[in-house]
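Field reference: sequence -> structure
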Amino acid sequence: MEVSRRIILGVGAVAVVGGGAGALMMRSTAQTSAQTTAQATSPATTVPPATPVAGDPRLAERSIGRADAKVTVHEFYSMTCSHCATFHKESMPQIHKELIDTGRIRMVFHDFPLDKLALTASVIARYLPAERYEPFVAALLASQERWIYAKAPNTPTDEIWKFAALAGLSRANFDAALADQATSNALLSAQDRDGKSYQIDSTPSFVFQGPKVASRRESGGRSFLDFAKLVVEAGG
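Structure field:
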C-alpha cells in the first residue's frame, strides 16, 4: 500500500488511501498555526539526550482534544494488537468527528506494548513531535500487515522507517530511537504502573472519567455507538 507524506502528517483533513492492507483513514489533531505547518514540513533533526530526564518530551502525555472537555478517555493500546487496529480504523474517524472535534471528550493515549516489536514502534512514535504522534500511530495501526509481516529482505523496522520518514523523523533520530533502551524502560515502567493503577490486562482497554463516573474501565474494541454511549454515561 502506497502511503504519502501528506497522509502520515495528516495536515488539515481526513485522508483516505486504498491499498493492500485496506483503506487507511486518519486525521490530524487541530493544527492551524503557521508554526505547526512549518514543523510538519521539515524533519526533526536534533537527537535528544540518550537518557530521558524530568520533563523530557519523549515521556510527556500524548493526548488529543480540548483540555476542558467534560470527559477524559484513556486508551491503552499496543501497536501490534489487531483489535486496537480495528478500533482505530473503524471507530476512531467518527469519534474524532463527533466527540473530539466537538469538545465532548479528550483522549489520552497510553503505550501498552505487548511485545518487543510494539515497544520499538512506541519508542519511535515518542521521538516525533507530540502533534504527529496520533497520526503516526493511526497510520501504523491501519497498516499492521505491511510492517509486522514485512517480506524479506525488508524487516519490520525497515517498514516502520518508511512511515517515520514520511512523518518527518530524521534517520539519526530513528536510529537513536532503535538504540534507546532508557526510553524503552521508561515506557515499560509506565505500563506497569498503568496496569496496577487502572487494572489493565488487555488491549485495547479504556478508562472513562467524567462528572458521572470517577473511573470506569472497559476492555475490548468498541463500535462508535458503544463508545459514544459510554461517554454519555460518563457525563459527556
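Note: Residues 1-43 have pLDDT under 50 and may be disordered.
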